Each structure stands twice: as structure tokens, then as C-alpha cells.
Amino acid sequence: MELNTRAVHAGREDLTDLGLHAVPIDLSTTYPARDSREEAARLDRAAAGVELGDNPIYGRVGNPTVARFERALADLEGAESAVAFATGMAALSACLLAVAAQGKRHIVAVRPLYGTSDHVIGSGLLGTEVTWSTVDSVKRDIRDDTGLVIVESPANPTLSEVDIRAIDVDVPVLVDNTFATPVLQRPIELGADIVLHSATKYLGGHGDVLGGVVACDEEFAGRLRTIRMATGGILHPLAGYLLLRGLSTLPIRIAHASRTAAELAHRLATIPAWPGSTGRGT
Q1: Which of 17, 185, 235, 253 could form a disulfide with 84 if both were Cys (CB 3.0 to 4.6 A apart)?
Q2: pLDDT of the residue at 35
């Protein structure tokens, strides 16, 4: 299916069999445990990052509504898995902790980045060290203890872009794809390994939900789930519902916003007093 169609159906494939049209919101914090030994074993698997699927165990570990949003976003980004968090910064923090826990505390990052991302990476608050680089020098700045290369394209709010394909390294490359969304850009297709979104922006699209999500392979997703379970940064079920609903209209909203931006740029370019204007037009 084309992306426009997948945006409507992803994460909802079972609704017809359930006799439902709208996605159910599961607000439970706890779930029945009929076998204490099996429940303990499932907790151990969850702590190791194993996806529990449709058998929730505790609200901090996972939630069926949130899981639907994760499956949908992974589908749209062309990733094996996705892990959702309470905010975009919680998602980025989990990525930093995931590599630091493996002894890879060095980060190579390309500016500009979203301001709070820049602060968290540059401050060393989570025990990481950063080398600020450029796309051309990333490979030279890689060290044995480098855990991630981080870029944002287009960046928030400068809209600066980088050539993701040009970052050809043996270290996982994380791309913040918040502003482009999978409608305009799918970083994994361009060679990236990890895609991060502040879902608060375009994925939600209506200014009424906070969230973050990371699309990646299942191995890294498992590490993120382990951190999320321990730190408690999971996305709220209502936010998961709103974000999944937001994905349904994402392609339409992004297409319209792009057309509006192009028209605005064209009109500004025709104003004689505007810097760089051609002075032509009506």
C-alpha cells in the first residue's frame, strides 16, 4: 500500500475482526495475573526488552493503545520496531542511555540541533561526551567508544539540512526526523539506523499531545524498552490514541503545509523590499 493508505490502516489491522471502527483506549495501569510464576517470568522478559505483544503486564511496561501507535510509526518509517515515550526528549535521553550502558559514551553530533537536544548532549548530563562535527568530518571524529552519530534534518527551528546519505560510518546514525516526518523523508532508506520524532509536533498535529518515538531495529528497540521500563518514560495511552489518530491525516496535513509554504515563499520573493527579492510578480 502507498504511504497515504498505510497512514490510515497501520496499527488498526485487527479492528474489523474486533468489530470496531475506532481504536480502543486502554487506560488500565495493571492487568490480571493468573499464574504468579509465569507473571514473574514475563516481567523478567519485559525487563530484558522483549515486546510482550497483546498481553500487557503493567502500564509502565507497555500498553495496547501505545503499541498500536508504535507499530504504525514503524510501518511508516520502514523500521522493524518503534518505542514510544512521554516526550521527544525522553526518547532522545533513552537513546543516549542505551549506548552509554554499552560503554559507548562518546557522541558525534552535527549542529544545528533542537535547542534542548543540544543542551542534553552538550552538558554531559546523562554521562555522555560529545564531539561537535560536520557531515564532512564525522568519519574522522569517530572513536572506539563512539556510540551514536546524531543529526537533525531539517533542523528545528532553522530548517538547516544535511545530506544523510553522506554520513557513511560504522556507528549507528540517529536522525531526528521531526520536521520532515515520514511523508517527506524516511532516513532509514537513506542509510540511517535510528529515527527519532518529537511526536508533539507534526505527528500529533493539533497542539494537544506530548510524545516522542524512536523507530529502529528490534535489537535497539529492546534496549530502549528496558530503559523505558526502568525509568518510567512511557507514553500515556490517551496520547497514544491521539498520535495514532494524527497519523491518519499526516500525509494530507504535510502536503497542504508544504503547498502553503511554497506559496508564501513565492509571494515573499516578489516583494521589492524583501531581502533577495526579484521584485517581480503581482
Answers
A1: 235
A2: 84
